[in-house]
Amino acid sequence: MTLPIRVLQIEDSERDAELIVCLLEKDGYTVDSLRVQNAQGVRDALARMPWDVIICDHDMPQFDAPAALRILRGSGLDVPFIVVSGAIGEDVAVRMMKSGAHDYLTKENLARLGAAVTRELRDAESRRERRKAEEALRETVDRLQAALDEKTVLLKEVHHRVKNNLAVVSSLLALKADATPDRKAKLALAESQQRVQSIALVHEHLYGTDSLGHINFAEYARELVQGVRSAFAVGDRFIGLDFELEPIDLSIELAVPCALILNELLSNAFKYAFADGKTGRIRISFHRPEPGRCELAVEDDGVGLPPGRLGAQNKSLGLRIVRILTNQLNGSIEQKERPGTRIVLRFPMAS
Fold first, then answer.
1. 4 pairs with which residues across the strands?
2. Considering only CA atoms, which of 167, 162, 226 is closest in space to residue 196?
3. Are 245 and 285 in contact (CB under 8 A)?
4. 188-208: pLDDT as tens digits
5. Which residue, 92, 200, 227, 346, is most buried by CB atoms nearer than 10 A?
6. From CA 225, how far away is CA 237, in angstroms rounded?
7. Residue 86: other Cβ atoms inside 10 A
8. What digits encode the pLDDT tens for the residues 68-120?
9. Which structural domains are found in the chain, ordered by start?
10. pTM (global) more than 0.70
């Protein structure tokens, strides 16, 4: 069985060109050959039809292999380029290979031309298959990136709408609180409004990040604390704030319950720790005491929380919320005995 092959010969000797065709036919190829001798001939031949292999004499009166190779590279075509020469030094051969030639032979060693052509045709086919695979991969990556970009836009819009809807709920609660004469009911509505705002703030932070699934909880905590302080400000009373926050990213599944717990602990501190207009300080810390675990602590130097207030027997809505959300985080919460109050929440990073 013969194999058809299109050979572009860059050769000034017709006799040598015929010999190359004969050698290839002897090795089982059916050869469709064209011989050219100068730069314009090479350009015209490359534009005319696709070639399976180019066999180029190294030195010709008006042309040479390096010039032919530059034309081939400039065309962007990937065609095996084999150099033949009556006599070629090793340094010249190395330069040709570095310039992009695929093989070189001396004319005294043309018996191995068929094997060289077979090898280069096989390698060229491998390169084509690799380029097809790379192109298919690029197309797949582009499609996935486009889909990801679309989903990112949609997810940003989801967070934006959730935040806006929560803002509406918060405003309705504020209006109801303003219209309610009962002091306890007014306080309960204000607390509910603050809980809604703490969740809305999570979605606001998610909307403003590139990850869309995680927020820097340290940045979030600073903003939340200021919001809670404004909500529970009383007269000219000064309550200082100290922060010790490690920049840790939390997923939305962890951030929302952790945010609500922080909101409850802060609200209790602002409402109860400093009675009768007393001043003091609240310290918020958030860090990773060990890999895979987080610790959130709220501490004040106020009147102090009676022992056991975090227990299940306490029916306070805020502390019930804290216990429920702590269980949701698979965490633990602990009240430290000291002047003032220190409450520590510990939970694993993976919920």
1. 30
2. 167
3. yes
4. 777 777 777 777 777 676 666
5. 200
6. 16
7. 12
8. 999 999 999 999 999 988 766 677 777 888 888 898 888 778 888 889 999 99
9. 3-134 (3.40.50.2300), 213-351 (3.30.565.10)
10. no
